[in-house]
Amino acid sequence: MKILALGAGGFIGSHLTVRLLNEGHHVTAVDLEMEKVTEVLDHPNLTFLQQDIRGASWDLDSMVRDCDLVIDLIAYANPGLYLRIPLEVFNLNFTENLKIAEACVRHKKRLIQYSTCEVYGRSAASLKNANLADPEDPIHATFSEDESEYILGPVVKHRWIYACAKQLLERVLHAYGLERRLNYTIIRPFNFIGPKIDFLLHEKEGIPRVFSFFMDALLNGTQMKLVNGGVNRRCYTYIDDAVDCTNLIVQNPGGACDRQIFNIGTPGNEISIRQMAETMRDIYAEKFRDSAVRLPDIVSVTGEEFYGEGYDDSDRRIPDITKARTLLGWEPKWKMRDILETTMGYYVEEFRKAPAAGK
Which residues have a Cβ under 8 Å from the Cβ of 245 and sit 6 or more positions away? Predict the structure, then answer.
């Protein structure tokens, strides 16, 4: 199959690109960055285009026309950017991605669109007047693709502009499916972790995601900062599990994925941000510690102090993966501690190979 992979040089995209090539596909990969795919740049079935899709020279129409499948991973997926450049976040995540979808409509191409679990927003337990019998019951934070309601914060909490842009794109894809028969599949990732997730504190797009921030603190002995005490909870998924599921969606057995939305996540890997910081520090002390670098302190900071004005967040997100299990036969394999140990090992090795770059 000829696959056009947009955003192929990012964290998810780089792992997926390698998998698609190993599956025998011909991949045209597009991204501004190529550092994460350097090991496959000379692969005979890969064409890599270092390209900004917002550029005037970008011939999206012909690229879509000449492929069999489009996989769109293009996004700003960094909370620091949602607060700092919200308009640009909206423009890239909705306006530019909509152009890709419309090209797929024109040329009748199947589209796999990466979205986000952030479209679900907060859990019912986070509402001030919820009056739930048991607020800790996981049912209040378990989200299914076609039934769950969305609870987002107020407009002044403009951190939600990312979730809103992604949600609006999903709704337009659904409408194109109804009226123009666009064959789409939407993927909602639940907190993927693995090698290459970020460039640690040298991330080109601002403050890195939580794992990367904690990893940098461990390597350099700086504080592990918990936003608002680190009480929010997430379910983390190893990138290999995520790519396995995405590959099944690419295969689309019997058309099972046509006009469907899939959560990709690991319900059993729920952990609070504080627990994650403590577990990572324990693993580092046990397996990787450099005695010359002290273990960092774990401290609490406000969201506004860490990210800036307009910050807000979801309290808890557990994926219902019944659909992926039923339609695809997919089951995540990686447990939380194994995910952390493996991913931390990758960054420790990278840091020690080039210590000057890591400090």
Answer: 262, 264, 324, 328, 330, 332
- Label residues 63-79 b or e (16+ Cβ within 10 Å = b): bbeebebbbbbbbbbbb
Report the largest interatomic distance among the alpha carbons of the chain, rounded to a whole angstrom.
63
Number of H helices, E strands in the chain: 12, 15
Q: How would you classify the pairing of strands 233-235 and 270-272?
A: antiparallel
Per-residue pLDDT tens over the stretch 65-94 = 999 999 999 999 888 899 999 999 999 999
pLDDT at 292: 78
Question: Which residues does the annotation mark as catalytic?
Answer: 162
For Cα atoms 333, 210, 38, give the angle at the middle one, nearest 5 degrees.
70
Tens digit of each residue's pLDDT (9 = 90 or more) over 235-276: 999 999 999 999 999 999 999 999 999 999 999 999 999 999
- In sequence order, the β-bridge partners of residue 52 are none
Rg (CA), the chain: 20
What domains are there in the chain, each with its CATH number?
Answer: 75-353 (3.40.50.720)
